[in-house]
Amino acid sequence: MTITQKENDTMKNEDDVVIEATIPTVDTTPDEDDDGITEDAGSISSKTTATTDKQPLRSVTPTASKIFSLIRTELPLLVLGLILMVVSEAASLTIPLIVALAYDALQTYFIDLEVTMSEINLWMGTAIGVFILSQLAGVARGIILGVLGERLVARLRRQVYASVLKQEIGFFDEHKTGEIVSRLGSDTQLLQSAVSTYAPESLVGFVKVIFAVILMYYINAKLTSVALSGMAVLCLFAIPFGQRLAALSKRYQDALGDAQTRSTEALGNIRTVQSFASEPKELSRYTEKIGNPDENSNNSNDGGNKSKNNNDTEKEDTTYDVGVKKQITQIGLYALVFGGAFTFLYCSLWYGFYLVTIEGSLTLGGLTAFQSYVFIIGAAIGSTVNNAAQLLSAVGASGRVFYLLERQPKIKNHENSNDSDNTGNTNKQAIVPTSPMEGNIVFDNVMFSYPTRPDVLVLNAFSLSLEKNTTTALVGSSGSGKSTVVSLIQRFYDTEAGTITLDGIDITDLDMEWLRSQIGYVQQEPQLFGMTIRENLTYGLSEAAADKITQTEIENACRDANAHDFVSSWPLGYDTLVGERGITLSGGQKQRIAIARALLTNCRILLLDEATSALDAESEHEVQKAIENAMIGRTVVIVAHRLSTIQCADQIVVMDNRKIVDVGTHEELLTGCRRYQDLIKRQSTMMRDVSAGTIQKLLPTDFSIDEE
């Protein structure tokens, strides 16, 4: 039977027996009892960890000491900035008083012209000089605090990113990548604004109020007491607004983080989105996070409460709904502060006229200066309340940042752990073997469950020996635990019971960086980065090793992986950019690049997790040749469904229901393992059922099928 099409033939030959169906399946959802990895041979999705709903990032209580620890390195800059702030604000606040003295001198203009003009010139010249000093100090303060903020956010992002990279795989199973990225970006930006803007400006407002009150008492104590009584009432009304604004700011930031998580996830899988024509669905899901101003909102006028009934309390905040409430509250706060400030300004001005005209205890210049200070205090209170609200929001965000900074990975080297071993020794060091690794791996009575599903046992009393320089294939139905074995060898997870040893050493005692440097890992969907071919090939090497590697070594690795011919055929060769996630390469090309990358690390252990299951016949043939070259002189573990990939393995491990059913060669299992026979028989039946008529139904109408 032949299948013809204008494009390349992508179907396998009839005599290429496989253990699972190779026709791509549309359903990409893992089974509920899966071991956490989608392992179907024809799945068009990449492997993902099946979990329950991922949890939001936790938050720790930000204390003064924690916040201070962030700025400890920048303390000299901060102190200098605060000194300049005091100089700038003190100078600017004396200007109204100096100008008032000039006004008083102007009152005696017709009495003594010569003396009055010289006095006016003195005071106005002083005012101009003080203003210039204030501006210079203010500019210097702004530059210093701006630089401080940029230094802080750059250092903070690096520290948070370093902490995130150290976390175990289970951490990423539990949390959405988009949320982590959002915290790394927006929350750290909020902290920068808090240190360089909100906190200093709040302090500026406080300093302004203190200095202004002192100068007002200097001008007239009686008038100041009247004005401050009104300001006290104003503050009492402003405090609830400020508290509400702080709460809304935090809710807005959380809603914005959820929206960013949704968009990041969709755009990162844009090919899947478009292949299923799911753009409207993704727009709808994104709209659920940001809200839609063109639709009526059931909770837009709920006074800040999510709802009064139990059903609506579960409705999530949207950036639109919370943003509207935030804007209304902010405008209300400004209206209260500035409106109240001007109201008390006019009232105090009215009383001031009485003191000037009737009592004569206040000069006209003093009243003018007093008026300026009342306005300054009103503006300072409004600014301080707003900045304080933003500062509180930033402090809330800092709790999530501190969680990422302080979280200790559950899988780490002994030298980074405070846990004691069985002898009570808390100073046990991770082992870096000095002798060459042989590659003997032993699983001894291993019990394991994924952190996201601790009640589901994935491996139960699992024992297996993998001898050096041999190839072991793991076969079985999806969910039997095959890919879990591969993950445990790399110590992506730790076992709940039992041990895994490498050359007789428990892998939990080995230095993780050393352990993983000895392992080459090739997945069903290899992960390439948006860099050049050369950079992707040397990604598994340290920076020093990558700088020393020669072009000949790179080409030899690619020849062994059957990748050199197609790479060298491109105009830029190894300097060709592959696009985001290697989008410009075919599946087979990406697999061969991934194999070459593993070979360049000179690994002693090679893990192949469904490395050919998603490829067509021609691509699989090329990748299979690359795999055969890569297997020489290494301990190899293959997770596969296709017989062409596993039949030459030294031992085949048949897994079912999280346990090992049987171990042997292909020939031994064909005669002695019922489960292995069933796997092949089921596949043979499926291949026979895929008759010409069945295939014709699955193919486009422009295909033709002819019996030979």
From TrEMBL:
Ranges of Low complexity composition bias in the record: 296-308
UniProt entry tagged with the keyword Transmembrane: yes
A Pfam short name: ABC_membrane
Bias kind Acidic residues: ranges: 29-38
Membrane topology note: Multi-pass membrane protein
Sequence segments annotated as region (Disordered): 23-57, 280-319, 412-432
Domain ABC transmembrane type-1: 79-393
Subcellular location, record wording: Mitochondrion inner membrane
Biased composition (Basic and acidic residues): 280-292, 309-318
UniProt xrefs under PANTHER family: ATP-BINDING CASSETTE SUB-FAMILY B MEMBER 10, MITOCHONDRIAL, ATP-DEPENDENT PERMEASE MDL1, MITOCHONDRIAL
Name by which UniProt lists this protein: p-loop containing nucleoside triphosphate hydrolase protein
Organism whose genome encodes this protein: Fragilariopsis cylindrus CCMP1102
